[in-house]
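Attaching the record inline, Q. Sequence:
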Amino acid sequence: MTLLTASTIFDLRTRLISWREKGDSLALVPTMGALHNGHMALVRAAKDAAQRVVVSIFVNPMQFSANEDLSKYPRQMEQDCKLLEAAGVDLVFTPKPQEIYPAGFVTAIDPGVMGTLFEGAVRPGHFAGVATVVSKLLLQSLPDIAFFGEKDYQQLLIIRRTVADLNIPVHIAAVPIVRDSDGLALSSRNVYLSADERRRAVALPQALNEAATRLAVEPDRKSILQSARDKVAAAGFAIDYLELVDAENLQPLPPDAKHGRLIAAARIGAPRLLDNIAVDLV
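Structure, as predicted:
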């Protein structure tokens, strides 16, 4: 099957009209490209859920803060399109920045308190950019279902909240984190790890898994979290956060909570890695 392409909103909507007239269901997988097996897991889930699959590739300038280099984000459009065609994707949407943000564009979505926590505190304005571009992509294509990975867990929660608050008629589906054989969560930024950094990076998922195991049987949450931070720091990471939070709103857990989410972000060398894991609590 030949992969169709669209680079403008008009072309995208034109392509979708015939599918809707046939009654075909539609799934969207929004990405920033540099596709890896984590993205392809989203594509596979989309193909299982709908008759037609659209993947967007757009490196969103609005979600990069002033101290982040947009130009260095990995781009591999030709390779990405080959992967998508082999996977049986129906259409790839590849808009230019001026297509998404035309001259005079000023509107942005405020994701509220959740957008100021953790990633939002480290990267001010990031989630306003995410919520805005995802809302635009959903409204441009109006899929029945859209797929996002659990690796960017805070992003997933904010997108779900945005879609609910704005009554966007799209179901947001989550796909579990895809990991390398040693447990490291797949990320487009992993390509920037040196061989030594890659070897040491596995300490992050190991620390989270060990903490999750202990939290299920031990009551001293504070001590367990500090042990996890110590393990990650000993591997050479600079930790932005490693916390146990409410899985629905990222707020601190009450003492009697029986479920939560461990979330972490830490830098090893230049790359900054994110990870998270669901936990049961004693």
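The two ends are 51 Å apart (CA to CA). The longest helix spans residues 126-141.

More tomorrow.
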